[in-house]
Design brief:
This protein is an alpha+beta fold. Helices cover 29% and strands 31% of the residues.
């Protein structure tokens, strides 16, 4: 941008100090000079518009790239909450970390025990026994200002724990819809000192209904009733989204496209 402006003033300086033309030639070339000046002015204006469009598009591109980046809205590692009850347990990470993003468990059997064995490469996870069909782990957070909501997590079980679950979503915490049906959990041994592959699920992208909501819910629902001692545990649950572009950004994109088309014509 600075080079364009400097060039502009250099040209003006050269024109201002051009040697005077003879009178005979001056009158005959007035029209030609006027035409040239008009053409030069038009070229300068086009160059100015081109620079303005380029700068605008650069700013929009930067903003769009930022808007398109995935942002962690809430992440439950259980390293701080150390869950030994049904909850609520606050998310430790993400934009909405804290009490506004709780994790809870539900069991129909009152004797269910919640515990915090090692996670997958970490010291803590969220675990429970006495699983019946319909029991679940549930996670809630806000997606205000974000779209393209995704969720991923780590999950394993004991040899007698439930192995088949559904992933469901909701915006009111009451009415749920299946997002992933009958996903299967393998028995993978976790340790605090190293990550073990084979127990990562997702990322799964939810429907647009989850975009820009004050509260969204995900829950992992057991499809089986198992032995009372059978356990299932979960770790590193992460809900993410991308920033919704500002209306002004979309307007600049449209303006840049329009000016680009007119310039080609």
């Amino acid at each position: 941008m600075l080079h364009v402006v400097v060039g502009y003033y250099e040209r003006e300086s050269l024109t201002a100090f051009r040697p005077p033309q003879p009178a005979a030639n001056r009158s005959g070339r007035q029209g030609l000079n006027a035409t040239r000046n008009g053409t030069i002015g038009g070229v300068r204006m086009k160059r100015f518009i081109s620079c303005a469009v380029a700068l605008s598009m650069f700013a929009v591109a930067s903003s769009t790239a930022s808007a398109g980046s995935l942002v962690e809205l809430a992440k439950w590692t259980f390293e701080t909450s150390v869950p030994t009850t049904a909850g609520p347990h606050s998310a430790e990470g993400g934009l909405n970390a804290g009490a506004g993003s709780p994790a809870t468990g539900f069991h129909t059997v009152g004797a269910a025990v919640y515990s915090n064995p090692v996670g997958n490469g970490s010291f803590e996870s969220f675990s429970s026994n006495n699983w019946s069909e319909g029991d679940y782990y549930m996670f809630r957070t806000s997606t205000l200002g974000y779209e393209g909501i995704t969720i991923q997590w780590e999950q394993t079980r004991s040899s007698t724990g439930p192995s088949e679950f559904d992933l469901e979503w909701s915006t009111d915490g009451t009415n749920f819809t299946a997002l992933v049906v009958d996903y299967v959990i393998n028995q993978v041994t976790w340790s605090s000192g190293a990550y073990t592959a084979g127990s990562l699920f997702g990322p799964h992208t939810g429907p647009s209904n989850l975009d820009n909501q004050a509260a969204v819910y995900f829950r992992m629902v057991s499809k089986q009733t198992t032995a009372s001692a059978g356990t299932n545990r979960i770790d590193d649950v992460t809900i993410s989204g991308t920033l919704i572009p500002e209306p002004g950004t979309l307007g600049l994109l449209a303006l840049g496209a329009l000016l680009g088309l007119r310039r080609r014509r």
